[in-house]
Specification:
This protein is α+β, with helices and mostly antiparallel strands. The protein contains 13 helices and 7 strands. Pfam families: MazG_C.
């Protein structure tokens, strides 16, 4: 694919093809698509509002948020086009061929496409003005009858303003498309096992997280939990550290889930002394203090969210907002390579084991990195 990280450009036709399998709505679901489109345009506008309100305090995240929201907006435009049997790439081509744009011929760095047209709006308004117009154009789409003949002119008008918004915001369109492809495919498509990262397979065995493991967790009369691996106690005894007991004393389960499913847990590495010291730069950046704090922080953040949802009991999915927050939390660390649906698997399996651990005041955690699974077994009992 001509995509982010592989080429300086992303073909719109390839974008359409890449994101189509992530559309979980019915072919007849037009209203949810329109609502989603309107909502995403509102999110782009809200991002600009935050920059006005918070100024420098928000500047660091502004471009990232604009890129994401513009990508989400285009996802819904593409979804609407599919339902109308229209080509997104053809609509863009029609808009850009209208004569309202400055066109320049440029040398392209891709040898397969040595010459490219560079197209830009010739009379560009300030971003806020453009975004207000984009909101107005999206509102027009809400009332349209969903037939290609009547919807196409409104879509062309929307896309024309969308292109202006891209240019006025200063974000690279290829980054918008590439980021959206990574985001939605990572969330909704199951990746091939061979495409998933394994962060320590090239390191000596004593520096790898174990491929399989069993960790015994027991609770003593003092209310603290104790970990044992290969018959040896590891780590410190833990309590809930909160006035209203909630079982957080068993939270190491989440680190074990991360280790088994994501192949990542600086906390678990430290507990069993399997840090990657043969490469000091990896040990420093990925296995040491700050990375451990991130691992602990992610677990605490997810736990606080899970408490409001009965620790995900009876659920088979995790909210997109939570997964995106986690993705931002771990930015800059190797685990950011893990797709969102792998995080979802780690969270759901981890909390399934946690609920049983909490119910029985202990148990055995069984992890398998090759299968990317974690299971619970009662002390002296059956595996579940």
């Amino acid at each position: 694919m001509t995509g982010a990280g592989k080429s300086p450009h992303v073909l719109l036709s390839e974008y359409e093809k890449a994101v189509a399998p992530t559309d979980r709505f019915l072919d007849t679901d037009v209203t949810p698509i329109l609502l989603g489109l309107f909502g995403e345009v509102g999110s782009v506008m809200s991002t600009s509002k935050k920059l006005h309100r918070e100024k420098g305090a928000f500047a660091g995240g502004y471009m990232r948020d604009v890129e994401e929201e513009l990508g989400d907006t285009l996802w819904y435009v593409a979804a609407l086009c599919r339902r109308l049997k229209l080509s997104l790439a053809d609509l863009f081509a029609e808009v850009l061929g209208s004569g309202n744009y400055a066109v320049h011929i440029a040398a392209n760095s891709d040898p397969r496409h040595p010459v490219a047209q560079v197209i830009s709006a010739s009379d560009l308004a300030p971003l806020d003005t453009v975004l207000l117009r984009l909101g107005e154009r999206s509102a027009r789409l809400l009332g349209v009858e969903m037939e290609a003949k009547t919807a196409k002119p409104l879509l062309l008008d929307f896309i024309a303003v969308y292109i202006e918004a891209l240019q006025a915001s200063g974000v690279p369109f290829s980054t918008v498309l590439g980021g959206n492809i990574t985001k939605v495919t990572g969330r909704f498509l199951k990746p091939a096992a061979e495409d998933l990262p394994d962060f320590d397979s090239t390191f000596p065995s004593e520096e790898q997280l174990p491929r399989t493991f069993e960790i015994q967790i027991t609770q003593r009369p003092n209310g603290r939990s104790y970990l044992r691996w290969h018959g040896v106690f590891i780590g410190d005894p833990l309590s809930d550290n909160i006035a209203d007991p909630d079982g957080y004393r068993f939270h190491d389960v989440f680190h074990f889930a991360n280790a088994a499913i994501l192949h990542w847990s600086p906390t678990f590495r430290a507990l069993i002394k399997h840090k990657r010291k043969s490469k000091p730069e990896v040990d420093e950046a990925q296995d040491s203090g700050r990375a451990i704090v991130v691992d602990e922080g992610v677990s605490a953040y997810i736990f606080s969210h899970a408490k409001t949802l009965n620790f995900f009991e009876g659920q088979n999915s995790v909210s997109f907002d939570l997964l995106k927050a986690i993705q931002n939390f771990v930015r800059g660390y190797e685990v950011e390579q893990c797709p969102l649906n792998l995080w979802e698997k780690a969270i759901l399996q981890g909390f399934e084991v946690f609920r049983q651990m909490r119910l029985n005041n202990g148990g055995i955690v069984i992890g398998n990195r090759d299968e990317r699974t974690i299971r619970y077994k009662q002390l002296g009992g059956e595996r579940t």
